[in-house]
Amino acid sequence: MCKDVINFNNLPEAVSFLINELSEIRLLIEKERVPVNKRIPINIEDACKVLMKSKSTIYNLCSKGKLTTYKKGKRLYFFEDELINFITEGKKKTLEELNNEIESKMFKGMRSKSKSRKL
User: Fold this and answer.
1) 76 contacts 62 by C-beta, under 8 angstroms
2) How far apart are CA 49 and CA 79, in angstroms?
3) For residue range 74-105, what is the model confidence (pLDDT) as tens digits?
4) pLDDT value at 32 more than 70
5) Which of helix, strand or coil describes residue 14?
6) Using CA atoms, how far apart are residues 36 and 95, in angstroms rounded to an integer?
7) Contact at 8 Å (CB) between 64 and 78?
8) Terminus-to-terminus CA distance in the chain, angstroms?
9) Please, which residues bridge with residue 77 across strands?
10) pTM of the model
11) Which residues contact 51 (CB under 8 A, 6 or more apart)?
């Protein structure tokens, strides 16, 4: 059917062919779909690899409350997405971003340019 020229006479056959192909594609996609929201806890060794820090640095960040941790028994657990968020929060601003931020804070309360006074 896919090699035939579609005209008005074979239109119902072409539509049914497309519907069948679409349902097969949908089944293939559903088989390959991996759950995105499935969060698997990782241990401190894996957290060290993600953050590229030593264990003592990780423990220090946890004790200061800078890293989100989960404790079960004597073990600490982390989630990789939270560790990546920790890294992205430490982004340094570019010079242009800093200038824009300073200008917006400077001119925030100003309504118009101040008039010069003659003394």
Assistant:
1) yes
2) 13
3) 999 999 999 999 998 888 888 888 898 888 88
4) yes
5) helix
6) 36
7) no
8) 92
9) 70
10) 0.51
11) 57, 58, 83, 86, 87
